[in-house]
Amino acid sequence: MSRFTPFIVSVTIKLAFAGTAEALYAYPAQSCPDLATLADNLSAASAHVRYLSDDALGGREVGTPGARCAADYIAHQFEAIGLQGAGSDGGYFQRFPVRAGSSLGAQNLLRSAGMAYPVGSEWIPLGYSASTSVTAELIYALDGINRPEHADNEYPELEIQGRIVVVEEGDVLSPLNRTLQADTHFKASVAAGRGAGALLVLLREGSELPDLSREARSALSIPVAALSGEVAVHIRNAARGGNVARVETSVRPQATEARNVVAILPGADPKLSSEVIVVGAHYDHLGLGGEGSLDPDARGVVHNG
Predict the structure, then answer these.
(1) pLDDT tens digits, one per residue of 146-186
(2) What are phi and psi of 224, to 5 degrees?
(3) Structural domains of the chain in order of their starting residue, each with its CATH number
(4) Nearby residues of 73 by Cβ (< 8 Å), 6 or more positions away
(5) Cα 269 to Cα 259: distance, rounded to the nearest angstrom
(6) Are residues 300 and 288 in contact, defined by beta-carbon separation less than 8 angstroms?
(7) DSSP state of 177
(8) Would strands 224-227 and 123-125 be described as parallel, antiparallel, or unpaired?
(9) How deeply is 19 buried, as exposed, middle or buried, from its count of CB atoms within 10 A (0-12, 13-18, 19+)?
(10) DSSP letter assigned to residue 29
(11) Does residue 3 contact residue 269 with C-beta atoms inside 8 Å?
(12) Positions of the chain with pLDDT lower than 70, given as ranges
């Protein structure tokens, strides 16, 4: 008789749901690709990679039909090799809600120096913005990146508490920098942690306003918005002059169902059978890119992963 500790094999979604969301969004049904067609003359390992990275799965973004095809495929493979389902219903799936995007709420306002800017044309709250309002002094903080190696590193010394922080998109000193510090969500998290009232991001010339419907990251505690065109120019000048602004953001998160795939290989040793070794991985990816990818401007391109 074999003597081993049970293994739990879990292939999971790497994104956790946070915050209150509207009713689950129903994605349209999709036929999954045929493995035999995709994997003809391939080894078993190559066939798995070929299937899961195929364009037909659309980058396996959380909650999409492509991600569900990937989950079904993994569950079938677990069943084929004799693993038992370890989901909550005895099957292979652990179902839970995840954030699947956002939409504009009823009240979104940006006003400064007597000018009110209509939402949706040259400014928009980001999908992870808090739904609240703030009236405060604007403060310009270059790109909002802390550079301790630079002698003129001013951002850590700026008094941003309670103020509306205005920053440039990305890294102005290294435009190709795609590290965490250049990410807008990270900048907003840092600003919120330092007590800022809001964060306004001035997009690079020619950049499109972000697509709220595809923003799945968790909401932050302050208003966060992206500005472009003439609005960005006006707010930059207003921030350099220390003007007061009012920012009101309203974002409605949407949720959909995601599924972890969980299976177990039971052990037989009387002493070890109550212990568990967990082997895990994630099967979702970035879908069609956008914010959070290494090339956020390449929207609409399948990120096979």
Answers:
(1) 998 888 899 999 999 999 999 999 999 988 887 888 999 99
(2) -135, 130
(3) 7-100+255-282 (no CATH), 107-249 (3.50.30.30)
(4) 32, 35, 51, 52
(5) 31
(6) yes
(7) -
(8) antiparallel
(9) middle
(10) P
(11) yes
(12) 1-9, 12-30, 289-299
Residue 227 has a pLDDT of 98
**Rounded (5°) CA angle 54-58-64:** 130
Query: How far out from the chain centre does Cα 230 lie?
Result: 28
Q: Give the per-residue pLDDT at 271.
A: 86
Strand ranges for the chain from DSSP E: 7-12, 84-85, 93-104, 109-112, 115-117, 123-125, 132-140, 164-168, 198-202, 224-227, 244-249, 251-265, 277-282
pLDDT of residue 25: 40
Q: What is the pLDDT of residue 36?
A: 83
Tokens of 2: 């074999």
As a whole number of angstroms, the distance between CA 199 and CA 160 comes to 10
- Which amino acid is located at 97 in the chain? P
The sheet carrying 115-117 orders its strands as: 115-117, 109-112, 244-249, 132-140, 164-168, 198-202, 224-227, 123-125
What is the 3-state composition of the chain as percent helix, strand, coil, each rounded to the nearest 5?
Answer: 20, 25, 55
- List pLDDT tens digits, range 65-85: 899 999 999 999 999 999 999
Residue 124: half-sphere exposure toward Cβ, Cα within 13 Å:
19
